[in-house]
Specification:
The structure is a homodimer. Chain A is α/β, with parallel strands linked by helices. Chain A has 3 domains: 44 residues, Orthogonal Bundle (434 Repressor (Amino-terminal Domain)); 132 residues, Response regulator (Rossmann fold), CATH 3.40.50; 138 residues, 3-Layer(aba) Sandwich (Rossmann fold), CATH 3.40.50. Helices cover 44% and strands 15% of the residues of chain A. Chain A has 12 helices and 12 strands. In chain A, the strands form 3 sheets. The first copy, chain A, has a 6-stranded parallel sheet with strand order 2-1-3-4-5-11, sandwiched between helices. In chain A, strand 3, helix 7 and strand 4 form a beta-alpha-beta unit. Chain A starts with 5 loop residues before the first helix and ends in an 8-residue tail after the last strand. At the A-B interface, helix 4, helix 5, strand 2 and helix 11 of A face helix 4, helix 5, strand 2 and helix 11 of B. Chain B binds a DNA duplex through helix 2 and helix 4.
Chain lengths: 337, 337
DNA sequence: TTGTACGCGTTATCAC
DNA sequence: GTGATAACGCGTACAA
């Protein structure tokens, strides 16, 4: 099945290829009837411009690279759907890659995308990324990159983030207002901004209510179910359980719930739990998990919009940080009966 | 940041562009030392062949389209990861699209991918797809397409599927062997092969044990949590609960569990539940869900391998159906105490 | 309004 | 072993 080219159409209609081309790019003068004739004939012949040739000619790929740490949890897929919503409308396609939470893989992905000549990149950093030299170099060369959710302070770039501080504050405040006194925080990878922010929100909420936080109230956890299980098992073993737990994210919270239930503790009667980042799981776990809902689709849409803006504008755009808002979904896991 | 081209390298080294090109495509004669010199210099200058030009010249995009119904559940993401494993190695990139379980969207995706000149497509059909004329036309034109999981009988094409019949049979048999007698089956969209197969497995397992299936034992459900909830609520209302339920997939099973628990029924004491298609959720729900594990990554890898095979071979390849194997993960939700 | 001719950056087919 | 040169399919100054 050989592809029909512009030449075939030109030959068929006894016109030059430029005329055909013009009919398809409506920024040129062309008689309306020839234009219509061409479009009609082209459609009949099944012609459409060869994207490869077009890209080569225009020196841009109309493709956007997306790098996420993973897409097994629903968070990143939802963001990607948001991105796709915008980019599809503008005629861009997505090359989606995952870093697997691995900095080397991430760098390799970036280089692959770069050499694929994507017009821009939307990225959420892996949890272990520290070396940002290469990214910064791209940014300095005016290559369009938008960061979302997972960012690093040193990076001078446009980012779409969630107000982690505020909502961690609210989530903690919710527990305090429910009357819980001894509240533990399970943190995530400590280099990530969002973890720092969530931790700070946790601390400042206590400050507001003049509550003490002992050092052992803040425990290094992680992003996965297993992290929650591990940490809570340790607490149970050392007989040092809190009234309530504020986990850095939902999987971690779910791990905590599973471990507690396994040892016969009731939730929220014995220990209340609050998660972060509404996920499909929060409504499946028993009891349903109180958690902070992030505007995942919105994050995607905003990132995509900013990126396309940046791609289209030829001059440098001043980096800015967009902070999106969320919501606290209160469910059984944190309700004092 | 202008890109370095082959010309720049040629000029710098006082060589012709053909020589440079040869150095990068090692199928031609070239003196080893000039070759090394070129590669070294190119690296210093930051040159790499422009993929767009290469693609135009070679008339193939080195990109593969992937169309899935959704990627919010972990099933499709896992398949995609499997696909990526293989394609990345072979230098192909993925254009991932989702049909949103919508036949029109699916067709639009196919056409977009086609006009993007992807070298092939890997697709899992939406649950409502019936009109396969366009796909069949592509296939007849020798365009490489691999179907996985969701297929339609009429389609003459290579497919990678799961042995839905066998494992539905085993899952049902497991319930029967546990001593359950009145077992209901919640089905999925009835046009999909996999739903028909799972239903048949359910029926034949009963036949093997000479158990009757009354018509009302088979209930039209759906693929989502809400479908499970809806159906079970109806059963509760009409006071017609079974001993056990075999659901067409995990979300459906989880919906059933949620509805039952909400009305105070215990699982598995009052009603046992078995799901299908191991998902992240099956281990989060309480009690843990007995379910059939599909080799998601393997499905992806196999599909990718077959597709690449088909892309590389110029002549027609006889359609074949690859059937992959699974495993029954027995957990609490189906264990008679 | 339309046609001619060149360039985009490669690879491939010739000569030399 | 290396260098011209013609494709690949398109957009677009420039000429007509």
């Amino acid at each position: 099945m050989k592809h029909i080219t512009i030449k075939d159409v030109a030959k068929k209609l006894n016109l030059s290829i430029s005329t055909i081309s013009r009919a398809f790019n409506d920024k040129y003068d062309i008689r309306e009837d020839t234009r219509e004739q061409i479009l009609k004939c082209a459609k009949e012949m099944g012609y459409y411009p060869n994207p490869m040739a077009k890209k080569l000619q225009q020196q841009c790929s109309y493709q956007i690279g997306v790098i996420v740490p993973e897409f097994l949890n629903s968070f990143f897929p939802e963001v990607i759907i948001g991105i796709q919503e915008i980019t599809a409308k503008e005629g861009y396609q997505l090359l989606i890659m995952q870093s697997n939470e691995n900095a080397d893989q991430e760098l390799a992905n970036i280089k692959t995308l770069e050499s694929s000549m994507v017009d821009g990149i939307i990225i959420s950093l892996s949890k272990e990324t520290k070396d940002i030299a290469y990214l910064q170099e791209l940014l300095d060369n005016n290559f369009p990159i938008i960061f979302f959710n997972r960012t690093i302070s040193e990076l001078k770039a446009t980012a779409v983030v969630f107000d982690d501080y505020k909502w961690a504050f609210f989530a903690t405040e919710h527990l305090i207002q429910q009357g819980y006194k001894k509240i533990f925080h399970l943190t995530g990878p400590k280099d990530l901004n969002l973890c720092k922010k969530r931790k700070q929100g946790f601390i400042d909420a206590h400050r507001k209510y003049n509550l003490d936080i002992k050092p052992e109230y803040i425990i290094e956890g992680g992003f996965f179910i297993d992290d929650g299980i591990r940490v809570v098992n340790e607490l149970i073993k050392t007989n040092n359980l809190p009234d309530a737990i504020f986990a850095v994210n939902d999987p971690s919270a779910i791990g905590a719930i599973k471990a507690l239930k396994k040892h016969g503790f009731r939730i929220p009667e014995d220990v209340a739990i609050v998660g972060f980042t509404e996920s499909r799981l929060s409504d499946v776990i028993d009891p349903p998990l109180t958690t902070v809902m992030q505007p995942t689709f919105e994050i995607g849409r905003t990132s995509a919009q900013l990126l396309i803006e940046q791609i289209k504008s030829k001059h440098q755009i001043e980096p800015k940080t967009i902070v999106l808002n969320g919501k606290l979904n209160i469910r059984e896991s944190s309700l004092k009966s």
